[in-house]
Design a protein that fits this description.
The protein is mainly α. The chain has 16 helices and no strands.
Length: 313
């Protein structure tokens, strides 16, 4: 990338130079983030210079996508450096530009990094909507690697909140997606700096861990996405940080309603719930209608979020 930048610079090709500088910055970060402190500091400084020069060229050429990419690169650098506030300051203007352009792939990356910036600042409630939007973008794009990446990011969030079984299921579901596609399963910082997977493993019995892991591995991607969105809605609604959801405030539900709610929260359709419980889809529909009324929920997603928030899923 640095050789390409030198060639484009010598030729006076500003567009090519900007692209090469962006690649240079990303590669420097990839090497520097796990390097010894002195090399890391140098790598971060060189990446910062590359992104800043790219930004200047993009502004000079009126290239708004280039501006957004450069600001996103600077925001990602701040994430790698563990500075959530600085990442926020760089990513927020990038988001406005990307939204105006309608570039969905860059939008997903920007939203995900904004969520990570909020998480770095200890604000999961603010992070949750960013992760939800990023997940929806990647789902609609059919990007399985990025979708799995968001699932793992949310799994780490669940682990921090001690929602251990949810965390294990999401880690396992994401691993299954990545392994099925032959994709790498490592995570970008700051997620991989937090030993979330180890923490949840040590907090569950062997049997409980195996059940949650196997359930996650078997979960179809659409259902994993649905369950993740419901969990994020619960977080955004203010479920207490660092505490497992409590069933104390849950209304009285029959045993069958609890079974239906648990499967609904896992993202199953009425027909799939009917098959799992050996009842008719019409009967499931009646239970869902009753559940929405009892829970005061206006949608299946809201009911799923309630179930997660109150330990019913």
């Amino acid at each position: 990338a640095e050789d390409a930048a030198a060639l484009y610079r010598a030729q006076g090709d500003r567009s090519g130079l900007a692209n090469a500088l962006y690649a240079t910055g990303l590669n420097l970060l990839a090497f520097a983030r796990d390097a010894p402190s002195r090399e890391q500091k140098d790598g971060f400084a060189r990446a910062d210079a590359a992104f800043r020069e790219q930004l200047a060229i993009a502004r000079e050429r009126g290239d708004q996508r280039g501006v957004a990419l450069a600001m996103g690169g600077l925001g990602y650098l701040a994430l790698c450096d563990g500075d959530g506030a600085r990442a926020d300051a760089r990513l927020t203007p990038a988001l406005r530009t990307v939204e105006a352009l309608g570039d969905q792939r860059v939008l997903g990356w920007t939203l995900l990094n904004l969520g990570l910036a909020a998480s770095l600042q200890g604000d999961d409630v603010r992070a949750a909507p960013w992760f939800s939007r990023a997940l929806a973008v990647y789902r609609d794009l059919g990007d399985r690697w990025a979708t799995g990446h968001v699932l793992k990011t949310v799994a780490s969030l669940a682990a921090r909140r001690e929602w251990t079984e949810d965390a294990v299921r999401l880690f396992a579901a994401a691993d299954a997606v990545h392994q099925a596609g032959g994709m790498p399963v490592n995570l970008a910082p700051p997620v991989d700096r937090e030993p979330a997977a180890t923490a949840v493993r040590s907090s569950l019995s062997d049997d409980a861990f195996a059940v949650a892991r196997d359930a996650g591995r078997a979960l179809p991607l659409d259902e994993a996405v649905g369950a993740t969105l419901a969990l994020l809605e619960a977080v955004a609604a203010g479920a207490a940080h660092g505490a497992a959801p409590s069933p104390v405030d849950a209304p009285a539900l029959t045993t069958r309603e609890r079974e239906v709610l648990r499967l609904l929260a896992a993202g199953l359709s009425d027909r799939e719930i009917a098959g799992a419980l050996s009842i008719s889809p019409r009967t499931v529909g009646g239970h869902v209608t009753n559940l929405l009324a009892k829970l005061g929920a206006d949608s299946r997603t809201a009911a799923a979020a309630f179930a997660i928030r109150h330990g019913l899923a």
